[in-house]
Write a structure and sequence with these properties.
The protein is mainly α. The protein is globular and about 60 Å long. The protein has seven helices and three strands, in the order H-H-H-E-H-H-E-E-H-H. Helix 2 crosses helix 3 and helix 3 packs across helix 6. The termini are far apart. It has a single domain, classed as Winged helix-like DNA-binding domain superfamily/Winged helix DNA-binding domain (Arc Repressor Mutant, subunit A, Orthogonal Bundle), CATH 1.10.10. Keywords: DNA-binding, Transcription, Transcription regulation. InterPro entries: HTH_HxlR (IPR002577), WH-like_DNA-bd_sf (IPR036388), WH_DNA-bd_sf (IPR036390). One of its GO terms (molecular function) is DNA binding.
Length: 133
């Protein structure tokens, strides 16, 4: 599909992420934000409990992970399964839509990881010519 055809098809969609008031913009932010993207990627491997997920997504705070999971659950990307046990057990897993989003996101993640030597070389060149800031 060429770029012109892709643009025409995108214009036919009922939502436009470039419009300030479009609800798709919020979902895009949830998916592409640092913690949202990493959370979706981690859950692609399967269901995880909160603390397992927190360990998998190294560096995320409990508060940020909780907020991220709430947003992704609200968007229909993550399913929260609370078991009535003592202590309570809560598992998180991707919904079918979340799985589809995570697949696309993981393609981007793997591409970026594969290009890091080139990115790091570009950073070095930039810093050498413009000075590290």
């Amino acid at each position: 599909m060429d770029t012109t055809q892709e643009r025409t098809e995108a214009q036919d969609l009922p939502y436009n992420v470039f419009a300030k008031a479009c609800p798709s913009r919020g979902t895009l932010e949830h998916v592409t934000g640092r913690w949202g993207g990493l959370t979706l990627g981690a859950l692609y491997e399967g269901s995880l409990r909160f603390n397992e997920l927190r360990r998998r997504v190294d560096g995320v705070s409990e508060k940020m992970l909780s907020q991220t999971l709430h947003a992704l659950e609200r968007d229909g990307l993550v399913h929260r399964d609370a078991q009535p046990t003592n202590p309570p057990r809560v598992d998180y897993e991707l919904t079918p839509l979340g799985r589809e989003v995570a697949e696309r996101l993981l393609s981007l993640i793997h591409f970026v990881e594969g290009q890091m030597d080139e990115v790091l070389a570009a950073r070095r060149r930039y810093d050498e010519t413009r000075g590290a800031r």
